[in-house]
């Protein structure tokens, strides 16, 4: 969203902008689909398409195109190896990207304003990019996301405006506050839940995008099945943790974790088994939550949890690392 805000501000100042937009990414490409970087005619930039020499080259090309008065949308492939005879990015990490060059002029301010409004009002609004330009897509229509490339002159690309993954943080103590900040910084949409509406770390949490007061006994009414979402349980105490865990255990999430010491987790699991919930029911859960980095303070614990979530989120993405020790 920050990149679109940058674009709007520049266009309002009558400064043309060329938007670099990653429409497709394969292999160990540094810039994933949806990455954006705006290059303004005054030399300023916002965002990234992956960094390194590739980004530098494409930014310089964008600046040249702005000076030349580029007005049409076009695509450019970038190969991160030395096997291709053309469109080499200068990187050797393997993989490839398809980057769109989208010129934007002050006359496009109304469209950008509509896009920003859609971003704030609906997390399911979509943008549609073609050689003819950018448009908002009807949110009621189903659309396959990504790039459909028929030829250099015949293609279309659809993307949800707000692509931020959602993390539900249940419990807004000091760790909840630190984790809200960490996850917001990492580009997540943070939903914070608490049953104590006057708690200072809940009231003063400026990092959560939504703050929701709930009855933990009815938490499952506030959080339904969300197969792409991340859920972190860290309430005030053992009793509430157990209530929330039981209520959400059979919901569908990409990630479900609960904070606690090993002894607390063992006690909770024994009680659940005695209550008729078999161990198989929680094998998919991350308990205790977080990577074992000997964290002690609230910010350190937040880092350990965020690191585990990032590991799970990116587990199936190509990293360029085989896990095998290389011998030089």
TrEMBL record:
Residues 168-309 form the XdhC Rossmann domain. Residues 13-72 form the XdhC- CoxI domain. It comes from the Bacteria. This is XdhC/CoxI family protein. It holds the Pfam family XdhC_C.
């Amino acid at each position: 969203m920050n990149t679109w805000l940058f674009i709007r501000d520049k266009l309002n100042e009558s400064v043309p902008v060329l938007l670099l937009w990653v429409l497709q990414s394969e292999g160990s490409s540094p810039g994933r689909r949806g990455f954006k970087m705006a290059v303004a005619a005054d030399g300023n930039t916002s965002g990234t398409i992956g960094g390194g020499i590739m980004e530098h080259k494409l930014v310089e090309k964008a600046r040249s195109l702005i000076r030349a008065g580029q007005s049409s949308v076009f695509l450019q492939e970038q190969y991160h190896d030395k096997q291709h005879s053309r469109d080499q990015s200068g990187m050797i990490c393997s993989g490839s990207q398809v980057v769109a060059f989208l010129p934007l002029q002050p006359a496009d301010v109304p469209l950008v304003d509509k896009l920003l409004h859609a971003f704030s009002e609906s997390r399911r609004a979509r943008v549609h990019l073609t050689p003819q330009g950018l448009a908002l897509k009807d949110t009621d229509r189903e659309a396959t996301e990504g790039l459909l490339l028929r030829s250099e002159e015949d293609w279309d690309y659809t993307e949800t405006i707000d692509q931020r993954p959602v993390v539900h943080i249940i419990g807004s103590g000091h760790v909840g506050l630190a984790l809200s900040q960490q996850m917001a910084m990492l580009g997540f949409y943070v939903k914070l839940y608490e049953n104590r509406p006057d708690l200072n770390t809940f009231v003063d949490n400026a990092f959560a995008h939504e703050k929701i007061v709930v009855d933990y006994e009815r938490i499952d009414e506030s959080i339904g099945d969300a197969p792409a979402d991340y859920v972190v349980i860290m309430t005030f105490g053992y009793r509430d943790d157990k209530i929330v865990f039981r209520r959400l255990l059979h919901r569908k999430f990409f990630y479900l974790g609960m904070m606690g010491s090993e002894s607390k987790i063992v006690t909770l699991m024994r009680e659940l088994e005695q209550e008729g919930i078999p161990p198989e029911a929680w094998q998919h859960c991350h308990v205790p939550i977080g990577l074992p980095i000997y964290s002690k303070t609230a910010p350190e614990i937040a880092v350990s949890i965020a690191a585990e979530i990032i590991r799970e989120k990116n587990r199936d993405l190509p990293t360029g690392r085989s896990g095998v020790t290389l011998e030089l």
